[in-house]
Design a protein that fits this description.
The complex is a heterodimer of chains A (346) and B (322). Chain A is an alpha/beta fold and 346 residues long. Chain A is built from twelve helices and eleven strands. Chain A is globular, with a radius of gyration of 22 Å. Classes of the chains: A alpha/beta (346), B mainly alpha (322).
C-alpha cells in the first residue's frame, strides 16, 4: 500500500462563541490516496466545507480552533505555519469554490487571475504566464481562448466562469484539488459539463479530488470513495459502489431514499428524513443522528465508533446482518407517510 | 473608452446648459425681483428706471435677455457688475479660480493619501490597538469644524508661537504659483492641512468600512486559496475594489469644494478665492457676479463628476462595458 496523499486524523474545528464552544467538526478522520476522488456528502452545516477550509488555513476567524492531524505528503497541515501553508495553497492543493459569480475579483481579467495564480508560485514572466493562461483556458473548453483571456469575469457566463476558476486551480498542477460544491450554483446542463470536465482533467492531470457536495447524483457520477458527514462527523465511509448498493447508516438510507428516480413510477411524495439537521452547538450526546433515527435504541446514548467490514465503515450500533431488512422498512414507512398526499401528487 | 468619454462630455454640456437656464430664471425672472431698481438705486424715478432697463437690455423678452447674458458671459466676456459699475465679472472670477484650485487640489491630494493610508492600516490591523486609534483620530478630524480649527491654527502659528517654533510661517494671504512656488506652498500649507483633516477622517472611515466588507468577499477567499500573500490580497484585491465607491465620493466633494464650498477655509486664511467672491456677491445681490460664480461652480461640479465617471470606468470594467 503506497503512502496516502492525505491522512486526516481526528480533525476538530471549534468556534468559540458567546454561548460557549461550538464544534463544527468533531473528530473527522479519512484517508485519500493519490489520484483518488473522494466525495464528501452531507447536509448544510454538517462541517464539509469547514473541515476542508480549516486544513488549508482558510478560516481566518480568530475564534476558530483547529486540532488533530492532517498529513499531506507526510507533512502535518494543522501544525504548519501560515507561510508554509501559503506556499502549499494553490500549488500542491488547489481549491474551487461554489459560486463562480463572486469568486473572481471583478476588476481584473480572467487571464490576470490565472497569471496571478501561476506567478504566485513560479517565477515566470507575465508574458509566459499569459500564454499558459490561454492554454489552460483552451484545456477547460473556453472557445477562442486567445481573445477571451482578456475578458472580465462579468463577460463570462456562470459555467464559463467556473471553467475559468477550474483552469486557475489547475494552473500549477496540484496533486490535490478540493472542489467545494463546484456545481451547486450552476444549472443542470452546465453541472453535467463541469463534472465531465473535472473527470477528464482528473484523468489527464492525475490530481486527487475531494468533492464536497450535498448532491448524491454528483457523488455517484465522479467519486471513487464516499464519505457521509453528519453533525461534524463521518457517519459512513466506503467505496462508491458499496455505499450506493449497500448503504449501512440510517442517515445514508435517508439521503439515498430522498433522491427522485428518473423513470420510476411517480406514486408518492419524495421521502424525507424526519426532523431537521442538528445545530453544531446542540449535538446530542451519543449518536448525533439519534433524534431523527427510526431505529433509536438504548445503545444510541453512547457514541458509536466508525467501524465495519473491510473498508466500508459506519458509525451505527445496529447489527450489520439486520440492516438490509431495516432499510427496506424505512422505505416502506416513508411510502406510507406519503400516502395521504397521493391524490394531490397525481 | 473614447465613445464613453464622448457620451459623457455631451451629457456634461447639456447639464451646464440646464443649470445656466435655471440660475438665470431664479435671479432674473423671479416675481418681485427687479434688477433695474437695484442698479438705478433707491428712489429712482420711473424715467431713470426705464433708461436703465434699456441700457442693460432688461426690457427685452426673457429668452433674448438670457441669450444676451450668455453672450456677454461666454462670447464677449464683458459682463459687468451691477454694484461696482465698470468692474468686469470674468476677470474677477479668473483671478479667484487659481486660489481656490490651489487650495482644494493640494488639500485633496493630502486627504486622499491620508485617508487611504489610515483606512487601509485600520482595516489591515483590525483587532489590534491600531484600528480603534485610527478610527478615533478620524472621528476627531471629522468633529473639528474648519472655521474653529483654522482659527486655532492661526492663533498658534501667527501669534502665540510665531516667535519661536512657527517663525517660518508667512502672514495670511495668497502668493501665485507663477511668482514663487516655495512661497505659494508655504502660504497654503496650513490651509491645506486644515481642510484635509476633515476629509481625511471621513475618507479613512469610509474606506475602512469598504475594505472590511471586501475582505469578507468570496474573491478574497479565492485569492487566499491561490496562495497569494495577505498584503497582496489587501492591496491588489480588496483595496482595488474598495476604491470605487471612494472615488465617487471624492468627485462629489472635489466638485463642491472647487465650486465654492471651501468658503470657510478661504475666509479664515484670507485667501481671495471663489468662495469669498460668491459670498460677497450674494451679500450685495450683484446678479452678474453671482451668475458668473454659479456658472463657474456648476462647470467644476459637472467637470469633476465627468472625470469621476471616467476614472470609474477605468477602475471598474463593469461600468465600461455597460
Amino acid at each position: 500500500m503506497p503512502e496516502p496523499l492525505l491522512e486526516v486524523e481526528d480533525l476538530r474545528v471549534t468556534f468559540r462563541s458567546r454561548g460557549g464552544a461550538v464544534p463544527a467538526v468533531a473528530g473527522l478522520s479519512f484517508t485519500l490516496h493519490a489520484g483518488e476522488v473522494l466525495g464528501i456528502v452531507g447536509e448544510s452545516g454538517s462541517g464539509k466545507s469547514v473541515s476542508m477550509m480549516s486544513l488549508l488555513g482558510l478560516i481566518r476567524n480568530t475564534n476558530c480552533l483547529v486540532e488533530g492531524t492532517a498529513r499531506f505528503q507526510g507533512r502535518d497541515l494543522v501544525s504548519m505555519r501560515d507561510g508554509e501553508l501559503r506556499a502549499l495553497r494553490g500549488k500542491d492543493v488547489a481549491m474551487v469554490f461554489q459560486d463562480p459569480m463572486t469568486s473572481l475579483t471583478p476588476v481584473y481579467t480572467v487571464g490576470w487571475h490565472i497569471a496571478e495564480q501561476i506567478r504566485a508560485h513560479e517565477p515566470v514572466s507575465k508574458a509566459v504566464a499569459r500564454r499558459r493562461a490561454i492554454t489552460l483556458l483552451e484545456e477547460v473548453g473556453i472557445p477562442d481562448p486567445a481573445r477571451r483571456v482578456d475578458d472580465y469575469p462579468h463577460q463570462f457566463s456562470g459555467g464559463m466562469r467556473q471553467r475559468a476558476v477550474i483552469a486557475m486551480a489547475l494552473a500549477n498542477n496540484p496533486t490535490l484539488l478540493i472542489a467545494d460544491e463546484p456545481t451547486t450554483a450552476l444549472d443542470v446542463t452546465t453541472q453535467a459539463q463541469i463534472l465531465d470536465l473535472l473527470q477528464r482533467l482528473q484523468r489527464d492531470h492525475g490530481s486527487a479530488i475531494v468533492m464536497i457536495t450535498h448532491d448524491m447524483g454528483v457523488v455517484s457520477q465522479v467519486a471513487d470513495r464516499v464519505l457521509v458527514m453528519y453533525a461534524g462527523r463521518a457517519v459512513e465511509e466506503g467505496p462508491r459502489a458499496e455505499v450506493f448498493r449497500r448503504p449501512s447508516h440510517p442517515y445514508t438510507w435517508g439521503l439515498l431514499g430522498s433522491v427522485p428516480r428518473v423513470g420510476a413510477e411517480r406514486q408518492r411524495r419524495l421521502p424525507t428524513i424526519p426532523g431537521s439537521p442538528v445545530s453544531a452547538d446542540a449535538v446530542p450526546p451519543g449518536c448525533p443522528f439519534q433524534p431523527r433515527c427510526r431505529y433509536r435504541h438504548d445503545r444510541c446514548a453512547q457514541r458509536p465508533p466508525l467501524e465495519g467490514p473491510g473498508d466500508h465503515v459506519d458509525a451505527c450500533w445496529l447489527p450489520q446482518d439486520q440492516r438490509p431488512e431495516l432499510r427496506a422498512r424505512v422505505d416502506a414507512v416513508a411510502v406510507a407517510a406519503g400516502d395521504p398526499e397521493r391524490g394531490a401528487v397525481r | 473608452m473614447i465613445g464613453f468619454a464622448a457620451r459623457r462630455a455631451a451629457s456634461a454640456v447639456f447639464v451646464l446648459f440646464a443649470i445656466s437656464v435655471l440660475v438665470f430664471l431664479i435671479f432674473f425672472a423671479t416675481p418681485g425681483v427687479d434688477p433695474a431698481a437695484r442698479i438705478a438705486g433707491r428712489n429712482a424715478s420711473p424715467e431713470t428706471l426705464a433708461q436703465v432697463r434699456a441700457q442693460f437690455g432688461l426690457d427685452e423678452p426673457l429668452p433674448v435677455r438670457y441669450a444676451l447674458m450668455m453672450k456677454s458671459l461666454f462670447w464677449t466676456q464683458d459682463l459687468t457688475s451691477y454694484v461696482n459699475r465698470g468692474t468686469e465679472v470674468i476677470p474677477q472670477v479668473l483671478q479667484a479660480v487659481p486660489v481656490t484650485l490651489s487650495l482644494v487640489l493640494g488639500a485633496a491630494v493630502l486627504w486622499m493619501v491620508l485617508g487611504i493610508v489610515m483606512g487601509t492600516l485600520a482595516a489591515a490591523w483590525r483587532g489590534t490597538a491600531v484600528d480603534p486609534v485610527i478610527v478615533l483620530l478620524g472621528v476627531v478630524g471629522v468633529s473639528m469644524p474648519v472655521y474653529w480649527l483654522g482659527e486655532v491654527v492661526n492663533l498658534i502659528t501667527q501669534s502665540r508661537l510665531h516667535d519661536s517654533v512657527f517663525s517660518w510661517v508667512p502672514p495670511l494671504g495668497y502668493v501665485p504659483i507663477t511668482e514663487s512656488v516655495g512661497q505659494w506652498a508655504l502660504h497654503l500649507l496650513f490651509p491645506w492641512l486644515t481642510l484635509s483633516v476633515l476629509y481625511a477622517g471621513i475618507y479613512a472611515r469610509v474606506l475602512r468600512a469598504e475594505l472590511l466588507g471586501a475582505m469578507g468577499e468570496d474573491y478574497v477567499r479565492t485569492a487566499r486559496a491561490k496562495g497569494v500573500s495577505e498584503r497582496r490580497i489587501l492591496v491588489k484585491h480588496a483595496l482595488r475594489c474598495s476604491l470605487i465607491p471612494v472615488v465617487s465620493l471624492f468627485g462629489l466633494d472635489l466638485g463642491a469644494l472647487v465650486g465654492g464650498a471651501a468658503l470657510l477655509t478661504e475666509v479664515v486664511f484670507g485667501l481671495p478665492g471663489v468662495g469669498r467672491l460668491t459670498f460677497n456677491a450674494l451679500q450685495n445681490v450683484d446678479l452678474p457676479v453671482i451668475m458668473g460664480c454659479v456658472m463657474y461652480a456648476a462647470f467644476f461640479v459637472v467637470l469633476a463628476n465627468a472625470l469621476v465617471d471616467l476614472v470609474y470606468a477605468v477602475l471598474d470594467p463593469r461600468v465600461r462595458h455597460a
